[in-house]
Structure formats: C-alpha cells, structure tokens
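Recall that a protein's primary structure is simply its ordered list of amino acids. Everything else, from secondary elements to tertiary packing, is in principle encoded there. The following example makes that idea concrete.
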Amino acid sequence: MNKLGIIGGGNMAESLIGGLLASAHKASAIQVSEPNKKRCAQLSEKYNIHCLNNNSVLAGQSDLLLFAVKPQLLREVAEPLKQAIQAKRPLIISIAAGVRSTDLNHWLGGGLAIVRVMPNTPALVRAGASGLYANYLVSPLQRDLAESILRSVGITVWLENEAQMDIVTALSGSGPAYIFRIIEAMEEAATRAGMERETSRLLAIETVLGAAKLAMESDDTPEELRCKVTSPGGTTEKGLQQLEQGNIEQLFENAINAAIDRSREMGDELGADS
C-alpha cells in the first residue's frame, strides 16, 4: 500500500489501523496526526506506527490522506492544508458525515481526487458496512486503494450518485443505533416478564447476531426467512402481529427519512459559504 496518512486518531481511525495491520499491511506505511499527546503515544505503542502532531507535515508525506475528524471540524482542519495538499496531490478520503466532496475539494484548493466514505461503528469489530463515492478525478487504481482500506473493517459498496450517501448515512451509518434500541426493548420486555436481566440481554444480543448471520449467509430473502420461522397460529405469529399493529414498517420509514433529512441539512450547514 502507498503511504497512508490519517488525520485524527479517534475510534474509527484506530479501527482502520487495526484492520489494515490484520490484513497484512505494513505499519511503516501508516502515519497518524493526532493533537492529543497521550492518545498519540497510545496509538504508537499499540500499533507500532508513527504518530505526530502536524497535519501539514503528514499531508506532505502521504499518497493517501484520510480525514477522520468530526464533520464540524473538517473545514477548520482542511483549509490550512491547502498548500501542502496541492503540492503533493494525494488521494483524499473523508469519513466525515454530511460533508460533500465538492465542499471539501473547494476547501483544499480544488482539482483533487476525493473518495467520500460513510462507515459505521461495527467497523470497530471488523463487521462494518461502508458506502463509498468517488468524484470524477479518482482513478481505478485509487478506487481500489480506497476500497482496500475500508474492506479491512467490513463490506463496502460503491455509490454512483453522491446524493445516495445521505441514504447510506441514515441506513447503515445510523442503523446500529436502531438495532441497539431493539435489543434494549427486547431485554426490557423479557426482564419485566420475569427473566434475570443478564440472561435477557444475552439472549437478545445473540438472537440479533444469529438472525443477521443467517440473513447474510442464506439464499433466502429476509421476508422468506421470516415466513419460514413463523408457524401459523404459533408464538412468532402472535408476536409479529403486535409489531404490525404498531406499524413497524412506517416507524422505520419515518426514522430513516428523518435521518436522511438531517444528513442533507448537515451538508447544507457545513458547506455554507464554501
């Protein structure tokens, strides 16, 4: 792999570093810029990578430059790097939710190959799902390089339309929180019915994990799998009837649409006056 520089040493950056090293990439090819000295030392010691506190130096040494900072900070971090990035012209990868590639390109001086990525938190355990969008300046080789980074922590899908990134943000980006809430509700219901909380939690978590694994590995659609486990007149049918009476499909449509709308709003807000 070419020299990868990561600006920001948070959890998502660490998950990518761990995934890359587990995929046999060399630690010597990875550098991180992180302002927190304690965090920088932790990353260096744990992964044997070079960590520094100078974004401009990092940008000038990187063939691939990955921004792993909060969306609200991206412009503040990116604009001072314009000169260094225009001189080196690395492939730019951004995992900042809501920030459009055109705005980032403008902040960095323009004319850059940019891949925008929406990962999700299961990347921390290498079970992530990432949507990727490449602007027209990204070469096939650069697409492969970007994909190899994200595939080290889970599956990847390419989007041809950047507007779809808002849907990815609402579905797989925010989706883990929806599932955690479902686990909470199942745990609470079983506990109130008389089961010990730890047992309720374990069964709820393993049920979600097993169902997801079965859905991933089966040739059947989720609908077909649901029908196979739902015997007429049985317990599952009765439980599903309650969910349908609560209009579960409409609830999820509302949740995802609300998240899509917020993602679009963030793009407008963060890119304002760019």
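The chain has two domains: 4-165, 175-263. The first strand starts at residue 4 and ends at 7.
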